[in-house]
Amino acid sequence: MQGTKAAIKEGARELPHILVVDDEKSICELLEITFRKEGHRVEVANSTEAAKRKLESQIFDIIISDIRMPGEDGVDLLKFAKEIAPDSFFVLMTASIAPRGPGGQRKPPMEKGGRLPASRVAAAHRARQHHRAKR
């Protein structure tokens, strides 16, 4: 039986190891559950400081971080991650409401051309698609 398990493990490709960083625990839990269901190894951090400690001790293929957090923000984490883990794919996400344009109307959410996606779920989905396309 062990030989069969080893053969299956060798034949299966390993899914990306993901770090989810958000000060909102419910967002971390949602993304963690979603990615685990797909077979990913997922770690969660609720602050930039906690994420930095994880990055110093583990290798992550994908880092998904909220931009706005108390203390150091997602951009600070991006800078740190690019120094310590330059090969990791980094996604910044936000739940901020779209800014108002002339006349007080909300501008449509940006999703194409490397701009921020409209929602956190879209950001996670785009990260998965990008990683799959690389393989």
Structure description:
With 135 residues, the chain is α/β, with parallel strands linked by helices. The chain has five helices and four strands. The protein has a four-stranded parallel sheet, sandwiched between helices. Strand 1, helix 2 and strand 2 (41-45) form a beta-alpha-beta unit. The chain is globular and about 40 Å long.
Helix content: 40-55%
What is the class in the CATH system?
Alpha Beta
Rg (CA only): 17 Å
- Which structural class matches the secondary elements? alpha/beta
Strand order of the largest sheet: 2-1-3-4
Which features would summarize this protein structure in a list?
135 residues; 4-stranded parallel sheet; alpha/beta; disordered N terminus; Rossmann fold
Quick summary of this structure?
The chain has 135 residues and is an alpha/beta fold. The protein has one domain: Rossmann fold (3-Layer(aba) Sandwich), CATH 3.40.50.2300. Helix content is 44%, strand content 15%.
Blueprint (SSEs and pairs):
Elements: H1 2-11, E1 17-21, H2 25-37, E2 41-45, H3 48-57, E3 62-66, H4 74-84, E4 89-93, H5 120-134
Parallel strand pairs: 1-2, 1-3, 3-4
Helix pairs in contact: 3-4
